[in-house]
Amino acid sequence: MTTVTSPVAGRSIGLAAVPDPVFSGAMVGPGTAVDPVREPSVAVAPVDGIIVSLHPHAFVVVDDEGHGVLTHLGIDTVQFNGEGFELLVSKGDTVRRGDPVVRWDPAQVEAAGKSPVCPVVALEATAESLSDISESGDVAAGALLFSWT
Predict the structure, then answer these.
(1) How many percent of the chain have pLDDT more than 70?
(2) What do the Gene Ontology cellular component annotations say (predicted)?
């Protein structure tokens, strides 16, 4: 079983509340989302594994069971072309849960007219393979978001 933890501090809101139909419809995969605190912060690895995809606004970590977890920092933030995001790791790096991955400022994202909500998605998973899904309440970075079997 893979335990997936929050990459950011904030409020868990569930995927259905994400203001983007691709995420809210779970087209990328099942999971949940976090509405982050509005202060400069560091998004951390949600699982132990290898960074297999890395962009300023999003990253994927694959654990030793082959589970890929996508963290997306804000909605439509690809349009910033990396501005306001600082990569703290490289593609191919091995990370431990809680290791810093990207420095960013959710308040800056919101001020630019985009949602800072962060979907955390189990790639190539079924909804039935997830349990203990957090969809409400405050979460700290590193708090349980869901379990994946």
Answers:
(1) 100
(2) cytoplasm
